Amino acid sequence: MSIRELPPQLINQIAAGEVVERPASVVKELLENSLDAGAGQIRVDVEQGGMRRIRVRDDGRGIPRDELALALRRHATSKIADLADLERVASLGFRGEALPSIASVSRLTLTSAVAGAHSGWTLRGDGGDRFEDPEPAPHPVGTTVDVRDLFYNVPARRKFLRTERTEYGHLEEVIRRIALSRPGLGLELVHNGRSGLRLPPATEAAARDQRVARICGEPFIQQSVFLEQEGAGLRLWGWMGLPTFSRSQPDLQYFGVNGRMVRDRLVTHAVRQAYRDVLQHGRHPAYVLFLELDPALVDVNAHPAKHEVRFRDARLVHDFLFRSLHRALAELRPGAVPAPAA
Ligand code: ADP
Ligand code: MG
After folding, report:
1. How far is the CA of 99 from the centre of ligand 1 (A)?
2. C-alpha to C-alpha distance for 266 and 180, rounded to whole angstroms
3. Which CATH superfamily groups domain 8-199?
């Protein structure tokens, strides 16, 4: 076979292989876009665990009519313009791949309205790079992305989808992670027309505690301490579980870097070291922690789905995490442990 350039839809489908594994990954990408658009309230409607339909509606800044087609085009983004931007990127997205990838493996419609426009506009993705003209559609300022029949045209992928229940479980976990990382965000999840989760924005400390309790359970919030530490340009905040709340599995460990939830080996290691002397062998700490630092000091372009990050100064980050948590644990004299509420 001679060398040929692949058609756009196939290129997008190949890219989709990296970022769109299942309904939960679609939800993650769409929510990240809503957050990047400055949304304060997001509603997620799903049917059949997201396999049949995922609709994400936000009140962000919207997309102007003339940019709708661009939003569905590969490598088109409003978030970076050059390498310098990439190296200090603070948005969750920047690759310009999510929407075209999702559109190439589903039936996607993008509807949006910006402030000051007479109307909203809607555009259907076709998976490639040719689009009809947008059509007027009523919509408040913000964006709705409607994704139906995920993998309808990729049987090989569809085969890997699990039961509705399993897919919904993954999707809920994505929502939980984002809800934890943005306490000020109002989030609503509706499954098959029934309310799954409804989280009002939480700005005050008590409301934030309550939100964490809703997501991680009442026992966690009762047996954890709130921590806030700063040093060397780094800031760590969040809830660290008391040694008495150790787990047999590492299933309650949330860590965010600059508002992005990550799974990072260096972080896990630093936390484990800090807890080493206070946890029995084989037990795992529970935590919901957030690290904030200059975006230029962390490289998020290490993985298409951005689950992993690379710290420019890994040592500094590791030591800061270890020392902050270790000190906080050392300060927990037996008497300082809050008694569980009656
Ligand atoms: P990326 O997020 O990497 O830029 P996407 O394919 O996810 O790439 O989105 C492409 C572009 O579409 C974004 O850069 C943004 O300008 C626009 N966009 C996508 N979703 C939204 C949204 N919910 N609100 C406003 N703009 C959006
Ligand atoms: Mg995106």
Report:
1. 7
2. 21
3. Histidine kinase-like ATPase, C-terminal domain (3.30.565.10)
- CATH 3.30.230.10 domain position(s) in the chain: 217-331
Question: For position 127, what pLDDT does the model report?
Answer: 85
- Confirm or reject CATH 3.40.640.10 for domain 217-331, answering yes or no: no
Q: Which ligand is nearest to the CA of 143?
A: 1
Q: Hey, which of 99, 101, 139, 301 would you mutate to test ligand 1's pocket, going by the most ligand atoms within 8 Å of its Cβ?
A: 99
Backbone angles phi, psi at 225, to 5 degrees: -120, 150
pTM tops 0.90, yes or no: yes
Ranges in the chain annotated CATH 3.30.565.10: 8-199
Instruction: Say how far apart CA 312 and CA 317 lie, in whole Å.
Output: 9
Ligand 1 geometric centre to CA of 258 (Å): 19
pLDDT tens sequence across 145-161: 999 999 999 999 999 99
Tens digit of pLDDT for each residue in 160-203?
Answer: 999 999 999 999 999 999 999 999 999 999 999 999 999 999 99
139 ligand 1 Cβ < 6 A: no
